Amino acid sequence: MTFLRSLAAAALIGTSALTGFSPAVAQETVYAAGDTTTGTYMDYMKTVYARAGNPEITQIPLTSFDKDFQLNALAAESWSQSEDGLTWTFKLRPGLVWSDGTPLKASDYIFALQHAATTGYDFAWYWGYAGGIKNWGPVTEGKADVATLGISAPDDLTIVVNTETPKPYLPGVVSLWYPVPKHVFDKLGDDWSTNVDTLVASGPFMVKEWEKSNNSMVLVKNPTYTGPWQPTVDELVIDPSLGAPEVGLPAFMAGEADFAYLNAGQIPFVEKQFPGQITKNAVFAVSYISFDLESAPFDNVNVRKALAAAINRDELTATVLKDLAIPGKSLLPPGYPGYNEAITSQAVFDPAKAKALLAEAGYPDGKGFPEVEIWYRDQGGYNGAITLPMLQYLQAQFKDILGITMNIKILPMKDWMDGLTGRKNNLFLAPYEYDYIDPSNFYGIFYNGGRHSHHVPAYDELVAKADSSPNWEDRAALYQQAEQVLIDNASMIPVVHPITNAVVSKDLVGEGAGPNKLGFTPLRQLALYFYTHVDKQ
Amino acid sequence: MILYILRRLLSVVFTFIVVSIIIFLMMHAVPGGPFDGNDMPVSPEVRAKLMAQLGLDKPLPEQYFRYMWGVLHLDFGVPFQSPGETVLQLLGRAWVPSLTLGGLGVLIGAPLGILLGMAAALRRNTWIDYLASAFATLGLTIPVFVTSMLLILIFAVWLGWLPASGWGKPEKWILPIIAYATIPMATYARYTRSAMLDVLTRPFVTVLRAKGLSERRILFVHVLRNAALPLVTVFLPMFIGTATGSIFVEAMFRVPGLGAYFVSSIETRDYALEMSLILMITTMFCIAYLLSDLAYALLDPRIRRRR
Hints:
The complex is a heterodimer. In chain A, helix 10 runs antiparallel to helix 12. By secondary structure, chain A is α+β, with helices and mostly antiparallel strands. In chain A, a hairpin with a 2-residue loop joins strand 6 and strand 7. Chain A is built from 18 helices and 20 strands. Residues 1-26 of chain A have low confidence and may be disordered. In chain A, strands 11, 12, 13, 14, 17 and 18 form a six-stranded antiparallel sheet that branches. In chain A, strands 1-10-9-8 form a four-stranded mixed sheet, with no helix packed on it. A four-stranded antiparallel sheet of chain A has the order 4-5-7-6, with helices on one face. Chain B contains 13 helices and no strands. The model of chain B has no long low-confidence stretch (mean pLDDT 85). The longest helix of chain B has 36 residues, at 87-122. Chain B has two domains: 2-72, no CATH class; 90-268 and 281-306, MetI-like fold (Orthogonal Bundle), CATH 1.10.3720. Chain A: It is found in: Periplasm. Chain A: Belongs to the bacterial solute-binding protein 5 family. Chain A: Residues 1-26 form the signal peptide. Chain A: Its main location: periplasm.
């Protein structure tokens, strides 16, 4: 036993000696959560869904949004639209260079989109759907030559974009148009963006270190960057592993992360431990119920309206989804351009009206109503946290108020999408998060079929007019009329707008760390703005 | 003995081939492919082009033989999720942290577990036994992510002695290694205790005591050697299990190891990486069991004679 005791003592002494270390944290470094641990290419124009790190802050887009969602000129110094509305001309600001000293040219932007259009870009739909670039569809389908694409660079500082229809909101759309360094790509192909040694940056930051196993990166100021939104911190350490609240919060508490996203269970604890340090962010998303309008029993408008009237959004978001969502009473989330608060007054919880509508549809107290199944998709992030509890709440509400049995089915993303577009079911819970800041983004979901085979001529006509009208006030009014068509037809039922919660270090200061006019703090949701407008005390 | 080893090596090759076929078929039987899982899947035309580039448009038997031909030449292909490198390069960089973590976890946890088990057996039904048994039971029943969280809260958040997570500097290794070590320590404590108790009650121990041998000699030379057989059975497979990475420990402590690739390769249908990982584990387990069998023979002359 003496031997055992000696060994145990030695182990204890060894452990104590080792525990003498303490973590060193440089004050000028911001430690932040990243997006995905499994991304491959650090090139937004190669892949959006499988991108590594934050190419949004190492490359400079033509324009970008600030925390109040005002459009700012970034690489593009100015832009103008032709009289017929079909041509946009963007003028690049002179003097922009890549981090290897090569001048940044308009042709780098043209190359980026031409390459994207022809090599399986997983975000290709965006440039047809949102950008409406001339010939985008035929080129991406391989039916037309890439040279026929409606983009060109008449000189090093000019980009011309031709669209199929007038796109008054194109300057906002091009906030996701990043350049690709053609001079590097020509030597290395797509692999240029997979290696820290071959990456070149055009934006405020450049990559210094890249730990591939979890895509954590150390980024430093790009010394050649001369554009707006200069970085205010010397170094960023962005680690996607910190994105999981279970990992991020302990790291935050130990001083190893400057902010951490929170799950619902953590919020009460953090409110006590770090009072006043929780920030909320509306992610500009909506979770809504959608139908196959031609499939019974949802081909009856009164059935759809009955469901809409049976949803108590205020109770749902005050109980089951407390701190995770706000009531969704319109397609557009609060604060989003075109959001119409007046229209939300129509989304009223009225059980008596719901019962009456269902009776009018031929199903008094749910008698004779077939068992239905609502399909939702397996997903992580904020949607993963809210969807199932929300559906279980709705399931109970519909049963209690309407006498309807609604079963719930979860599907993998692809199967859910196939089911939605292929009309394999007639009831869905659908999430949608904005891709660009303009009402056309959300209204497009139901335009001319959209993702739901939604064909309502009056709606399509209004959206088409709104999409191409040059005047913002006219557009906003037309979109409001379009939403009224959706409401009257009960084409969809908005249920909630998700929000995210994060705890932010008091050491993090600057415009980027504070809330916007609506009280929301976007954090890395607007990565380029946030990381260039945040400082550390 | 040489014939025995050769026979076992041949069975390793057979197992390797059978596992490769089963895994290959299972991988391709799972719905979806490498370009189906995105939020907004690519168009069918583009998908077809990408599949052709990776040779995934070929018939399954051809894909299998192409892959295995590459394996024969130590070419495990290119991981779809990290196309800038080969599978071997990826394993080379991601395995180092996992091996460090798992290896040190076992090398620290196993001896401590043996000591704990010995102490419990030698002081049976005393507070030492109860404490050791409670510790072993807790170590085996508390999920490792809970242990990890407790370690972070105590040593990083409350005491501030150690970093909560990360990798690189040796001080960042300590907490994940402790979290890792709890499992082998608890496992070994339980195995050692029961094996020791079994041997200590055998007649030959009484004979040795009657001969006047010291307790230390009886314990370390005779009892421990006889109790070692079940420990050998557990040791190498456990070493492999931990050396291939623990997704929970690595995730909790942000260790850039291999653990996450086991999940992500399945999620993203990264066939080349998925196959390579499974084949790597298969080979390691086959060799581990072979070495275990050889160790039995070294420890127990009766087994040597039977062969």
